[in-house]
Prior knowledge:
globular, single chain, two-stranded antiparallel sheet, six-stranded antiparallel sheet, 299 residues, 11 helices
Amino acid sequence: xxxxxxxxxxxxxxxxPLAPGDTKGILHPDEQAKxxxxxxxxxxxxxxxxxxxxxxxxxxxxxxxxxxAEVLSYPSVNITFERSESRTGGFVNGVxxxxxxxxxxxxxxxxxxxxxxxxxxxxxxxxVGSLRDxxxxxxxxxxxxxxxxxxxxxxxxxxxxxxxxxxxxxxRPVAEDPTYRLVLRIIDAMATDQELTRVDQIAxxxxxxxxxxxxxxxxxxxxxxxxxxxxxxxxDGAELLAKxxxxxxxxxxxxxxxxxQAHFSREFTTEVGMAPLEYAKNSxxxxxxxxxxxxxxxx
Length: 299
């Protein structure tokens, strides 16, 4: 396992993103599920300080129109190993600060490593801010990245790919990083405490000056603390709307920390591409289609 100078801190586990039905960050989740499969697997104890989960997406749209899969990405770096009509290889994907769109066409697959927010920077020593909104070949960042890509894509199952990656990651020496431990605590609070809506609240709670927070987040996370807060709250809003919470948008906006409903609606429309109620109606329509196929009509 990674060799560190002092005992490893246990990473936060406030929510279970691997629970069945967890779709946070995925836009139009029921619609998207009709076009691709998604599997998430937990990392082993040797690397779970840095890695959140492994994931695999497969699609077979041969004879069908391409589909644009949309995601409000987490503030995390992903390493992906891909094989499709559009590109094949291994890539380090920095934090995506806009809506992420991936066109799925023909036959394809992606196996990914989602690092914890701040985890890739702590694990590699890379200034993650330099990767923001960029994807670069794995070989440009990690030693023997080209060989790792070959081994992952050659492995026939998701479980075997996990083992290949786990062995590679666990063999790298990583020094313990107190700043990363602090980043983990701050990120966990941002993700789970919806009362945290401003950077000054974070600075006060953790006793870190705002300027220091900015530098810390650029180095480890790749985006500023204000953006991270807004992204988590926007993900919360999209998830609630997809599940049918539409009766009081003003109350929803207030719960998420927005100044008013108009502020929430503007930001949601800008980031997601449609107004909150339109998004909710679209999600309900596809959820009803799925239910109709699963539940036979009574006569």
